[in-house]
Amino acid sequence: MSPSSAPGRLPCAVQVGFAGSRRPLPDDCSDLPDQLERQLTERLTEHLSALPGRLGLEPHLFLCGLSQIAAGADVAFTRACRTLAIPQRILLPQPADAYLSALGSDGTPDFTDAERRSALDLLDGPQIVEQRVVTDAATRQQRFAETNRELAAQSDVVVCLIRQGSAAKPGGTAQLLDLARQRQIPALELEVSVQEGQVQLQATEHGYAGFAAPALPSPLDRTTAPGFGNADPLPEVQAYVAAVKAHCSGEAAKSRQRFGRAAWIVIGTHLLATLGATVVLAGHGLGGDGHHGHATWPLVVLLVELLALGIGFGTHHWMHHAAPSRNWAQWRLLAEICRSVRALGDLHLPLDYLFRLRLPDGLVPLLRTLNILHLRSTRAQRERPWRAALAGYLNARLRDPDPETGQIAYYRDRCRRERTKLKASQWIFTLCSLLAILATGLKLLTLVGVVPVDEEPAALLTAILGTLAVFLPVLAVGALSWAAAQDYVARVHSFGTTLRFLERRSAELDHILREPDEPPAGGLGDLRDARRAIETIELALLGETLEWSMRRTFGSVA
């Protein structure tokens, strides 16, 4: 088996937040040739290349850089990421055009013309997968401070490049280093100096001892798939979500089957035990003197009843403590997340909606990995006309007639099927209840003599009717228990609500597609209504699954 096709662990991202001084070199070196800047980039590249080894990262873990694009250290970091082919996300305190033309507190431009051209060239580099503004604070100092907080919030490890002897200031590099210490994020502090014309970086590690690498949700973190031998090269997002979804969907199907079988066992064994108890009771009445003599069948029935109750109780205990219901909920939620990402296709937009859902914290490494891989894989599609991308999403995600892919068809089909199952459960309850009433009424009429029956047949008839009067209500309740275990009522309501929502959003996207072109006819970012509509749809679809998984995880079972 070739290395490219050999099964390997699924890649997982480790986000590296970076901040550094705008003027990292000493003042007496500021006018030296560009070779010192090249040396700085080379030294930083060496440290960044060695970072996985310092952290003890396994081969399936890959780095993703987070930084601004300020002159000086940020530029060196961005060049290092480009050299090492590390995907990089740019987080800015203000829009790029304003950022690159901003003035410092003393009125001096943050960028010279040459630095501005260099930054623009780097922003167009192949490793840049995202560029976004993360704050709308009123003042410059607040904007940079909030950007540092965002870097710290999203980082698994922090690298700070500090000019030797520089003073800390709000929003500066030292603030990010302090935030990392406060939040117990491992940090690598690199102090810059120049000795004998050579740039030196003095490395100091903070908090490495307690570092725990990000991991995909267990047991997905140990899942292997063909073509994922390590994180180099990084996979395309569609291949990644296909592998994850195939595994999660398979496990969800198995968990659902186990849960269904267990629910049937619990209900079936209790029905069997009830039937056995009523048969023995009826046989006791037929014995006349209240004794069974040497008959062994009542003992056999009681033994069967005891075994049924034990099996039912054990299965119920297993359902709660072995957590098949929770496993089912987790696998289905993961599969739906992958389905959502896959549906976006070539649309180049960040997966922000995934982070707005109240998903379990253990899913964050997977969500970050999906976001990075999606942005990286769709980067080349940034200039694709938005109408073609939006029409593809609308037809594939919502209107495909196949319920396996088209969500409108899926929810219409599921709503119909769940409503049929709910009605069947209700009919069983109604029928068994009516028959129990009839059996009880006939028994009463027989006992009071309204229905004339000979003594011996009357004893047999009352025994049979008594058995039915006890067993049929239990069967009726069993139908309701099964409906509750399968969530039929909630699912019918939820599916119906989601179906109507999707039909409205489908009409809204149609309206957006019919609107005249707006210059520039660029990517989806030029049409905020389309992006907002897509995020609203995905939030609703995943929200419905999340709500179901929460009920399944923490709700009671039959």
Q: For the residues shown, what is the average pLDDT?
A: 82
Q: How many discrete domains?
A: 2
> Count the strands?
9
Specify the structural class.
alpha/beta
What Rg do the Cα atoms give?
33 Å
Low-confidence stretches: 519-526
Q: How much helix, percentage-wise, in residues?
A: 55-70%
Q: Give me the number of helical elements.
A: 16
- Strand fraction equals 5-15%
Describe the largest sheet.
Answer: 7 strands, mixed
Strand order of the largest sheet: 5-4-3-2-6-7-8
Order of helices and strands: EEHEHEHHEHEHEEEHHHHHHHHHH
Gap between N and C termini, in Å?
47 Å
Give the overall form.
elongated
Could you characterize the architecture of this molecule?
The structure is a single chain. By secondary structure, the protein is of the alpha/beta class. The chain has two domains: 7-206, Rossmann fold, CATH 3.40.50; 238-348 and 384-554, no CATH class. Helices cover 59% and strands 10% of the residues. It has a seven-stranded mixed beta sheet, with helices on both faces. Helix 1 (35-55) packs across helix 2, helix 5 (140-154) packs across helix 6 and helix 7 (237-286) runs antiparallel to helix 9 (324-343). The two termini are 47 Å apart. Mean pLDDT is 82; it is low at 519-526.
Layout of SSEs?
Blueprint: E1 7-9, E2 12-20, H1 35-55, E3 61-67, H2 73-84, E4 88-92, H3 96-100, H4 113-123, E5 128-133, H5 140-154, E6 157-163, H6 173-182, E7 187-195, E8 198-206, E9 224-226, H7 237-286, H8 297-321, H9 324-343, H10 352-356, H11 364-377, H12 386-398, H13 407-447, H14 455-485, H15 488-514, H16 528-554
Parallel strand pairs: 2-3, 2-6, 3-4, 4-5, 6-7
Antiparallel strand pairs: 1-9, 7-8
